[in-house]
Amino acid sequence: MFTSTITLGNNKKVFAESAPALSGFSIVGFTDDEILDKYGRNNYVYYDASYASQVSLHGSNIYIVTEQIGYGNSAAYYIDGDYYGHGRTVNSIALEKNNIAYGFMNMDEIDNLKPGKHTIKVICTSENPVRQGTTLVYPTLSDTITLTVETQ
In terms of domain of life, where is this protein from (predicted)? Predict the structure, then answer.
């Protein structure tokens, strides 16, 4: 299994000039309390999304890692087709180039999941509009992952 790790805490300032509209959004990974307790909650330690069918998560709290390019609102979650609400963002880092932020990686907590297989859809809407013809629209992008949750 491959996992990804990003360490937080460099406190480097980045600037977000002329915030671009949301142009990319995807689920890049997932994790659980067991992994975060083992490797530290100030680290992005997670399974790559491509391992979703091969890994079971433990406990009722899971964490979804998303990457957004451009500026979007807080992601909305649907669990097995039912609206869950907004996950609690527990970690967020700016993606930047030349000290200019162009997007974010967020780790959101989803709690109180029952054991079993769950399809999780995450939806993000742009904070800034783009022009389509003569109309300004706010792009909405989404991604879906199916995860298996086991009891502790």
Answer: Bacteria
